[in-house]
Amino acid sequence: MNAVLAKKELHNCIKRGKAETLARFFKTGKGEYGEGDLFLGVMVPEIRKVAKAFRAISFSEIKKLLDSKYHEERLLGVLILVENFVTGTEIEKERIYRFYIKNIKRVNNWDLVDLSAPKIVGGYLNKKDKKELVRLAKSKNVWERRISILATLFFISKNNFTETIKISEILLNDEHELIHKAVGWMLREVGKRSFSTEEDFLAKNHLKMPRTMLRYAIERFPEHKRCKYLKR
Predict the structure, then answer these.
(1) Within 13 A of 56's CA, how many CA atoms are on the CB side?
(2) Residue 62, Cβ neighbours under 10 Å: how many?
(3) In the predicted structure, residue 232 carries a pLDDT above the cut 70
(4) What angle do CA 98, 82, 54 make, to 5 degrees?
(5) Which of 218, 113, 99 is nearest to 176 (CA)?
(6) Which of 73, 128, 74 is nearest to 98 (CA)?
(7) What is the 3-state secondary structure (H, E, C) of 46-68?
(8) The pTM is what?
């Protein structure tokens, strides 16, 4: 098994006309967040199937996938890492995490981030020092900043909200809409488990929050509470 064979299998799943649709969806135009990204036209369920079939390939072969100019080939590499992390030993998980961080520049669109950061970064750091999240949150790279907040979804699932609140405060004044959406989403997830924790955050910060971030955060609030925050 190697990257060449994995790519060949992926290319067998291409749907005619889908590449153009995906390119528009992931904003690949000039000045957009995915500028220059290239698509084959393969859907995520098919990529997952190939990832399962090629999960045994080496890190060096996964790196060839991550270095690809094609979005789906990079996503394939990321999903192979996720497959192996979920079932790996502690030693294997550490190796995967470190490989992921070393190649983090190739995790460069929101779906690659969202499908990997919670499990790999959040999963690895769950019972460890989380200072790496602060470093990522302060990065100039939008995808690294998104990784920092999406990783906390794993902690939220364990009813630990401390890191989500901390990273949300760091990203509060971020200028990128994709970060506004991600932070609002994670705050909403906190609220599902601890409404009081989310309300405490909003009480301190809702006047400073970008509108999109606030809307995402209060999406599941009762109508009267949403109106209260939106009338700021």
Answers:
(1) 3
(2) 24
(3) no
(4) 110
(5) 113
(6) 128
(7) HHHHHHHHCCCCCHHHHHHHHCC
(8) 0.93
